[in-house]
Amino acid sequence: SKSVTFTCSNRPLYPISGNTTQPALDGSSPRIVLQQPFVYFGKQYNQIYVNHNGHMTFNNPWSMYIPQRFPMYSTWDIIAPFWTDFDNRQTGLVYYKQYTSGNILNQATEDINNHFPQLNFTASWVFVATWHEMPYWQQENSRTTVQAVLISGGQSSFVLMNYGNISPNKWNIQVRALFRLNSNVNVPGRWAFRLDHGSRGCTFNGKTTSTAPMDPLSHGYLH
């Protein structure tokens, strides 16, 4: 991997910077040791993998490119902002970076308190993974940018799923509008969920949902 910085002021995306993975079909990052533990539905994790096909896993890398409906692979904990078949062998990069100080923590603190106003939250750790201008397999002219921002402070943990440009694909032509133009926090292109407690689902404003962000045909999942 290499360390790079890509300046992006287009909300809802956080800055795109950090290490990049080795381009590969169905590839993954190396094991990433977390600088602070991340609590995921009551389970504490100290490592993560950013997989090329739009998802992250905690115990091992994973190459699966076909989105699964629930219930699925109950032994796998997975965060998938855009689970699809990416191919970045020619273009497109997967970035990841951790933060424990600085402006990103301030931004995360402000965002979580805006999205979850009943909390008095202070972020102590942020992990940003970005799939930047990724083409779909056998659609080399497509370019899709999506992002997962893991945020924790104390025993509370959250994910922001941020959507930049989404290219239509041959499997779901409506996906661009569904992700990029909608939101559950009134920020078009952003979906926010609390992850630290409760059942195997995600909570928003005290209500539990089983999938994120939308319907069973969409590609965003928490499990």
Automatic annotation (TrEMBL):
Q: Which residues form the NIDO domain?
A: 81-198
Recorded hits in InterPro entries, A to Z, give: Alpha-tectorin, NIDO_dom
Q: Which one GO biological process term can you cite for this protein?
A: cell-matrix adhesion
Stored Pfam families: NIDO
The identity of this protein, by name, is NIDO domain-containing protein
Query: What is the originating organism of this protein?
Result: Poecilia mexicana
